[in-house]
What we know:
This protein is of the alpha+beta class. Helices cover 28% and strands 30% of the residues. The chain has helices spanning 2-18, 23-35, 63-66, 69-74, 126-130, 187-198; strands at residues 78-84, 89-90, 95-107, 110-122, 136-139, 148-152, 159-166, 169-177. Strands 1, 2, 3, 4, 5, 6, 7 and 8 form an 8-stranded antiparallel beta sheet that branches.
Amino acid sequence: MRRIRAFGWAVVTCCAVSACGGGDSGERATAAATTATPARPSIRVSVPPAPAQTGTKQVRFDPCVEIGDEVVGRLGFDPGTRERDSGEMATDLLTSIGCDFNRVAVVDGEKIITGSVALISSNDTLAEIRSDKARNFLGDEPIRGRPALVYSTPQLPGICTASMSAPDGVFEVNLIVFPGPVPVPPPCDEIRSLAEGFAAALDGK
């Protein structure tokens, strides 16, 4: 309200001195700046809406809506494979909203999935994640300036996870690689660079 009142005072003063020659355009520009909303990223494949949330701590960052095809493709995954994560949930205690993408290679004219990434936004916390004794923690250096944890889970071979602090709680990047005819690096060798790339969608949030 202070800004609005100050702007109104400036308009009155302008009118008194110079008949407000540019007042209308200034008001239109201010209104446009106030009502403008960030453009959604370009997404080719539509997905169902996230589950309805019932908890008091809402998860607003939806990776399936906020992370566009350009970012997904640049990081080596096929935007056309975009789909809701099968582990999504919305309960009074925990809400988890996610999006999955596959990494695809062509071998002898046949498409082969060499890996998959799950991008999860939840109201979990890094402290709760750290308390899980079933995880093997590999580092806690910040990722894109955000407190983070990198870990593997021995019971889930082939998977590595980077969890970062986010406005709603935690943003996770889970990478799984599949053995096959195409050599792929171990998932924990790639996880930090992938997390840096996907976490860019959180900048300014």
